[in-house]
Amino acid sequence: MLVSNHNTTEQTDSAPSPASKPSWRFGDLSAAELMPQLQRHLLDQDIKANWQLVWLNNDGRPIIGLLPKVSWSVYPNDEQALNSSPNIYKVIKSCRSTGVRRDIDVNSDNNSYAGTTAYMSYLQWQEELIAYSNTQKANHDTSYINSEESSKPSYNHGLIGFIGYDIAAHELSPADRIELAMQPCASLGHYDIYLTPTAHTDTGWALKTHLTNDDTSESIGHKTNDNFITTLTSYLDELDRKLSDKYLNKPQFKDASSITPLVLSPRWSKLDYQQAFNRTQDYLQQGDCYQINLTQKWSGSLACKNNDVQSAFSLIDYLPALYRNTKAPFAGYVSVKGNDGDYLNRSNSFNADSNHFELLSCSPELFFTFTREVDTGKHSIRTKPIKGTMPRGTTDEQDEMYKQQLVNSEKDRAENVMIVDLLRNDLGKYAKIGSVKVPQLFAIESFSNVHHMVSTITAELKTDTHPLAVLFGSLPAGSITGTPKKRAVEIIAELESTPRGAYCGTMGYMNFDGSGQWNVLIRTLQANASSDNSLNEERHINLWAGGGITVASDCDAEYQECLDKVGNLLSVLAQKPKIVN
């Protein structure tokens, strides 16, 4: 029986529906405002726990994952630099713990405290995830998910994380040896403990758990499930009290929330972009591709304040201001610790972890929504590629003028339909014959800084196709590569000449019943340690922007489009954000 304190729902069967505690208000903070406070607080309570916080806005149905039962972090092979086994990756699989004993055998597969390292291909990792998901689906009751809930994309129990662009592009064209950034290529975790907004209320968060007492890996150190949930609940109770105090004492809250300006500089000058654009046009005119998505990079660093590692800022500290500015429907954040599997010798500071990787996305773009019909078990898929951009106006009249220019743009319509055709072809490999439809072409959706042209494609999946296979097999997204996709990623690697990392990959969740939702990682920042293995404490930040180039494209307009897409993010980072009372 799973029982937590404070009147938590009791569960008595071995495959429970989620238990939930009555809500916390957390000072009435939004999810984006709560995340930095939550991360710092949990680390203060237990620095050695495998906290791997993840947040998805999920188009207004947010989820905050706390402590994954199992997580997989994928890195370039250690021997990649030697060009040995280029299609084999280092996969670190870790299990939940809230404490570390010194007598643990880190090489034991049965050890719930340990990280284990395996070397496998992209396909082998995909197959392991599918097998794991099928096992979890069989072991957990999903009858509590009614048809009304399942018709709206929401997380109920499964995997959350990201898959980067580099690994997907590398797999699409392995012979081209596309470079992989020295950071996690992907990371997915089984989040059976998470926070979700309370039902039928405007404020408040509830703790949901899917713990089973007959699973020995659920024992946390010497703690039972009951004790573990009680302890975690007490952590959240304390945070709720602190945030309520800070909310009443605004100067104290302001001091805790302030951040330093962060200036990101472009890797390319306008001339550099012109040269890359001209080379792109050469490939287009030679017939290599019909469209190529050319992107450019902005970079900066977060240095420790007064050389004090303990006081360094993290990318998560900028999340509240960035989300407040963008209100991005598919925003998200995830942090990944360490790539060496050393779970016995962690630093006492999350910020000081030299291998600490953060991903913060303010993405407006949906990649895939997977839905499952409760009665039939049928899986369907929806995708909404973005192709076509205009800035927002400074007045209502100018804003409407820009919007109409996008509506009437034959160039943007041509680009959009190219990507629609590419995605129809991608889905055709997994969809039932005749089920691929395009219910909407060239719709205009408006965001904080730009108008976008968006189309919608739907399909019904074949009965023997797992949604994870569709996700893996369709990456990277056509809207951020070009067409034909394989040749486009090869040209991108040549022209951009630096790995994209996670940017232009995907972030989201896949429930064990096969429903899920994934974005395209645009408007996305990445933070990673210096790759020079020096004692430099700086953590590097990068941000990208780009657009689809065709033979009809104008260089000046495309360059300006890049600035339009990230200008508001750069402004938020560069100046000290104001605290909104």
Number of helices in the DSSP assignment: 13
Q: Pairing-aware structural class of the strands and helices?
A: alpha+beta
Binned, the helix content reads: 25-40%
Give the C-alpha Rg. 23 Å
Structure summary, number of beta strands: 24
Structural features, described:
The chain is of the alpha+beta class and 581 residues long. The two termini are 43 Å apart. Residues 1-15, 98-113, 214-222, 341-354 and 577-581 have low confidence and may be disordered. The strands form 2 sheets. Strands 1, 2, 3, 9, 10, 11, 12, 13, 14, 20, 23 and 24 form a 12-stranded antiparallel sheet that branches. Strands 4, 5, 6, 7, 8, 15, 16, 17, 18, 19, 21 and 22 form a 12-stranded antiparallel sheet that branches. The protein has 13 helices and 24 strands.
Name a few traits of the molecule.
disordered C terminus, 13 helices, globular, alpha+beta
Secondary structure elements and pairings:
Blueprint: E1 19-20, H1 31-45, E2 54-56, E3 63-65, E4 70-76, E5 88-95, E6 115-121, H2 122-139, H3 147-150, E7 158-163, H4 165-172, E8 186-191, E9 193-197, E10 205-209, H5 225-248, H6 250-257, E11 265-266, H7 270-285, E12 291-302, H8 319-326, E13 330-336, E14 357-363, E15 366-372, E16 379-383, E17 386-391, H9 396-407, H10 410-428, E18 437-446, E19 450-460, H11 467-474, E20 482-483, H12 485-496, E21 506-511, E22 516-519, E23 524-529, E24 539-549, H13 555-574
